[in-house]
Structure formats: C-alpha cells, structure tokens
Amino acid sequence: MKKQINRKVFLQQMAVLSGGVGFGLGTVTGKAFGQIPAAHMANVEPGKILIIIQLAGGNDGLNTVIPAEDDLYFSARPNIAIKKTDALKLDQGMYLHPSAVGLKKLYDQGQVSIAQNIGYPNPNRSHFRATDIWNTGSDASTVIEEGWAGRFLKTRYPEFPISLAKHPMAVQLGSVESLLFQSDQGGFSTVFEDPNLFYQLVSGTPSDSDIPPATLAGDELGFLKQIAAASVQYAGVIRDGATKGKNTIAYPTSNLGRQFGIVSKLISGGLETPVYLLNIGGFDTHANQLTQHANLWKTISEAVSTFQVDMTNQNLADRINIMTFSEFGRRVNQNGTAGTDHGTAAPMLFIGRTVRGGLIGANPNLKALDSNGDLKFNYDYRQVYSTVLRDHLGLDNVRSQQIFNSTFERLPIFKNSPDALPEAITMELIAPWPNPASGYTLLQYGIFEEATVSLALYDLQGRQLKLIDTGLRKVGSYSVNFDLQGYASGQYLVSLSTSRGARMTRQLVIQ
Per the database entry, which stretches of residues form a coiled coil (predicted)? Predict the structure, then answer.
C-alpha cells in the first residue's frame, strides 16, 4: 500500500520544484534543518551502496544452504533433497546449491557471508502480509506503512520532500513501487525498467504545480504528482549516468542479469544513490521444485558473480554490498507434488568485499521444530537490517533504534561488525562522536540484558576523572552529550562497565 504524502508537505515541495511558486504557505528555507545539531544527524557514509535482491515467492532455504550431512533432511525430503555429492561444500556440514557455482567461487574468496535461520516471532505465511513485514521492519502483529529503508533515507535526506537531492535517493528496477522506500513524507525511490525508456517517457514533461483539491481524491492526486515531479527531475540524471557508465564484462541475458548491468552503469556513471532494489520472482515452489529452484539460483549466481567481477574491474567493489531477502522460507517436509509449502526461517546472503565471509549462526535444527513442524528462527531479521545500516551504511545506533523501535544486537556479517554472535555480547559502547572533539561529544551505548552500568572518563594511566552516567538500565540504546569544558587537550579513555563484570573501552581525543 502506498503511503499518502502529507498535503502541506506536498504543496511545499511543489513550490520548490515549480521554481518558487507560492501557495500561501510562507517561505520555507534551509534554516529549519540547519538548526538540527550535527551530533543528532545520521553519521552515514555517503559513498557506500546497498543492493537488495528480493527473492519473491518464498525461497526454500534448506535447498539453498543445504544440511547435506543431516539424515533428517533426507527423511523429510525423499524426492527433492539435494545429495551431498552434488552440492557445493561450504563449512560446518553445510553445502550450497549446485547451481550456484559463481557464488561458491565468491564464498571461497571470502566475499559471501550467509546468516542462517533468519526470521521473527509468530511468522506470517501470507505472501502479501509477510512481504510487508520484511519491507517495513515490523513485527507480525503491527502494521506499518513506512518501509525500513524509507525511514533510513529520512535520516540521510532530512530536507526531503521540500528539497530533492541531486541524485536519486533510491532506485528500484521494476514497474511497481515497493513499500520498502515509503515514508510519512512520501516515497524515496525512482522506479523504472530501462533508463532510456524512462527518460523518453518523462522528457520534456513539466512539473504540474496546480493545487490538488482538499479531498481524499486530492490527497491521492497529490501523491501521484509528488512521484511525477521527482521523475521529471531524475530522468535526465539517470539517463546521463547510464550513458557515462560502462560494463567491463558481458552480463547474462536473464532479467536479473539485465538489472545488474543497469546498476553497474549507473554506479560507474557517477550516481550517488545509496540503495538499489532488484527483484527476481518464481520462488513459490509448491510443485516440481527441483528444476525451477535450480534455474533460479543459477540465474542469481551468474548475475551476482558477473557484477562482482565488473565492479572489481572498475575499482568500485569496496563500496558495494549485496543482500538477499525473501518473505519466508519453506516447510521442512516436502509436499505431495514434489515441492514445498510456505514455511518460516531461512538464510540471507551478503556478497561483497567488506563482508567477513562464511556461515553465521548454527545450522538449521531439524530435531527441534516449532509446533507446526517448521524451523525455529535463531536471529531476528531486524538484527540483520540493523547490522547493515550500522556497519555498511554507517548509521549510528540511536538512529537505528528509532528506525526499528527497538535495540537489536548486530551480527558478525561485515569486517567491522562485532566479532562474536549476540549470545556473547551483553553491551556495546560506540566510539565517541565527533572524535577528535571540542566543546562536547556524543557518547552512545547499547544494553542487551538488564544491568547496572557505569560510563566513565579515564586518563591513560587508568585514573577515573568523571563518572558520566550510571544506574540500572533496561535493554535499549542510550546517549549522553558529554561537556568537555575543563579538560585539557589530549587522549582519554571512555569506559562502559556493568554489574555483570563486562567492560568496553573507547578512545577519545580532545582538541
């Protein structure tokens, strides 16, 4: 469902896009945003790019990352299990689908991390509802009309929609706008299937600055006008980027291969878009799964591995990470038509040169299934999203908590992610920001199990200079603006400790 843009905000944006035409709303300037303290803005990394591949239909995780040394797997799937001798060996008794040869090569190079058993409590098995849950970052019982990426992009582009960024804020390859990029300020994505056709479609089309009527239909019209206005602005930028960019290697002729080829040209052509959404369907494998699933993973593997080679050739690979997701996994047991029905937990893949590489988390436990006979999830999918936002896109933990309305421990997906799985982590102290600092610095920490904490400043000889924050803290994220007046320039230590004996220290430089 598309999110309706607020009428007043829409009219403000139309005034900007139409060259400052007034609608009686008063002048809007950048001063309102300039008054936001820098420490409370998102600490994002502008050069990093996230490419999301949606596996539409519900990917069968057990036949993607295969427990081929577990007899229970073969018992549950006598006709569709993939033999150990055919599969591609990974680690800890798990194997990759035999069609994913290109992905296996990247895995061996340390460029693929696989998070196992990702899901959420009380999973929904409806394609539509489950897709909305994954797109919005909600729990099963909460309906949200904003996408998690849309909420992130609000922190990245705080002046939207009053002022549009120079380059598209998000790009979706397809024809139907995803809920993923919606926000209470409108949609952040530009949607098209071909850059040149998109340019031809809107080329020469002026922004429509007529005021929509103050009715429900007028609000819908306003939403459509907001999309059209952004399309007009970005059509030329996208066309120019695709023209300037290049592919250094021939891409597969599949639809996904074509999508990756377009993204490659846009990135190499200079687009500063941070998030892309690609799509491949056909994963609703209720019948005759073996052949269909093999073709799908062959398509993904070829497209992704070609893209990685292309980006490496163009010295762009260090900026980019690819993430897969699907609305649910499949049932453990095969059905009567050589397929699988809607299930629960499944793996997610992360491809890039900044990932740690390898398997994350325990293998699927086929002995301890839920009451429906489905896999239990080990890690919440919002832990994954939070990790991606923080460790790849550079978002601070306070903003991450606001996006998901909860604190989630990160997973060891990237090289700069925590070394251990969440079970071994009870707290997290973020590096002070700014650092070096003068005047004040923002100290942020997260607590993953209730404890009494002490946040203190020490000199390099280990002497405590200031107890900054202390008390019983519930699970959550906390921040303290620490006044640095009275402290000499030099190096200090900020330490967070808990009543359970845990301690974490960060260095602070005062100018």
Answer: none
What is the mean predicted confidence (pLDDT) over 396-410?
85
CA–CA dist 1, 223 (Å, integer): 12
Structure confidence at residue 40 (pLDDT): 38
| CA proximity to 391, closest of 43, 41, 53, 155 | 43
- The pLDDT assigned to 422 comes to 74
Coil, strand or helix at 88:
strand
Does residue 121 contact residue 357 with C-beta atoms inside 8 Å?
A: no
Q: Is the dihedral of CA 257, 262, 267, 269 positive or negative?
A: positive
Instruction: For 356-401, write each residue's pLDDT tens digit.
Output: 999 999 999 999 999 888 999 999 999 999 999 999 999 987 788 8
* 275-280 and 320-325 beta bridge pairing: unpaired
Share of the chain above pLDDT 70, in %: 84
Contacts of 336 (CB under 8 A, 6+ apart): none
**Structure-block tokens of residue 159:** 């002046």
Q: Which of 496, 489, 440 is nearest to 467 (CA)?
A: 496
List pLDDT tens digits, range 329-349.
Answer: 999 999 999 999 999 999 999
Token digits of residue 492? 């200090």
Three-class SS state of 494: strand
Model confidence at 33: pLDDT above 60: no
Q: Quick check: 215 pLDDT over 90? A: no
**Are the C-beta atoms of residues 426 and 448 closer than 8 Å to each other?**
yes
Q: In the numeric block, which tokens belong to residue 120?
A: 């959420």
Report d(CA 79, CA 20) in Å as an integer: 66
Structure tokens at 356: 């740690």
State the CB neighbour count (10 A cutoff) for residue 174.
16
Beta-carbon contacts of 47 under 8 Å, excluding residues fewer than 6 positions away, are 319
In DSSP notation, 458-480 reads: E-TTS-EEEEEEEEEE-SEEEEE
8 A C-beta contact, residue 286 and residue 335? yes
| CA 140 to centroid of chain Cα atoms | 19
Q: Could you tell me where the DSSP H helices lie in 245-288?
A: 255-268
HSE-CB of 100 using CA atoms within 13 angstroms:
23
Residue 486 CB contacts under 8 Å (≥ 6 apart), including other chains: none
Mind listing the domains of the chain with CATH numbers?
47-201+237-404 (3.40.720.10), 426-510 (2.60.40.1930)
Q: Residue 43 class from Cβ within 10 Å (0-12 exposed, 13-18 middle, 19+ buried)? A: buried
Cβ-based burial of 166 (10 A; exposed 0-12, middle 13-18, buried ≥19): exposed
Give CA–CA dist 157/167, Å, rounded: 11
What is the average pLDDT across 457-467?
Answer: 90
Both structure tokens of 206: 């002026």
